[in-house]
Write a structure and sequence with these properties.
With 144 residues, this protein is an alpha+beta fold. It has five helices and two strands, in the order H-E-H-H-E-H-H. Strands 1-2 form a two-stranded antiparallel ribbon.
Length: 144
């Protein structure tokens, strides 16, 4: 089964390929819209994932402060506190994001496309079909 994100990535690759040949007026549109139920976010999981990313950011900032600033603490202590404060701040951000996502008045369903289409100017359709019908390796060999 192909998910819509894989189809969107395929559409992005197609747009990139056509833009590499000079086509400018391209857009990706969603087609085959359907209603899907929105999943509720797991607050604990969202807090944990956000805490990990916050800890990584805090660790990086702690290392940066250790290298740049002149502090009375040792470098290891600065890095440790950066890690701790980053994890706490990240957990709080994830917690509140999940709470906002799960609020009672939030819509329970949303519209999502089942497939994506790459559109171009009507005058460029024949050129785009010709470019997409030939393998990309042939074009790059001709240019070289």
């Amino acid at each position: 089964m192909i998910t819509s994100t894989e189809q969107y990535e395929d559409a992005l690759r197609t747009v990139d390929q056509l833009r590499s040949y000079g086509m400018k007026q391209l857009e990706i549109t969603g087609a085959g819209l359907r209603m899907v139920d929105r999943r509720n976010a797991n607050v604990a999981r969202a807090s944990g994932v956000s805490a990990l990313s916050g800890a990584a950011l805090g660790l990086a900032l702690g290392v940066f402060v250790t290298l740049v600033a002149d502090t009375s603490m040792t470098g290891l202590v600065v890095v440790f506190w950066g890690l701790v404060y980053g994890a706490i701040l990240g957990a709080l951000v994830g917690f509140f994001k999940a709470l906002v996502h799960n609020r009672p008045e939030a819509p329970a369903s949303e519209v999502r496309p089942t497939e994506y289409e790459v559109r171009c100017a009507p005058a460029d359709v024949a050129v785009a079909k010709k470019l997409l019908s030939t393998p990309p390796d042939l074009h790059h060999q001709e240019a070289a």
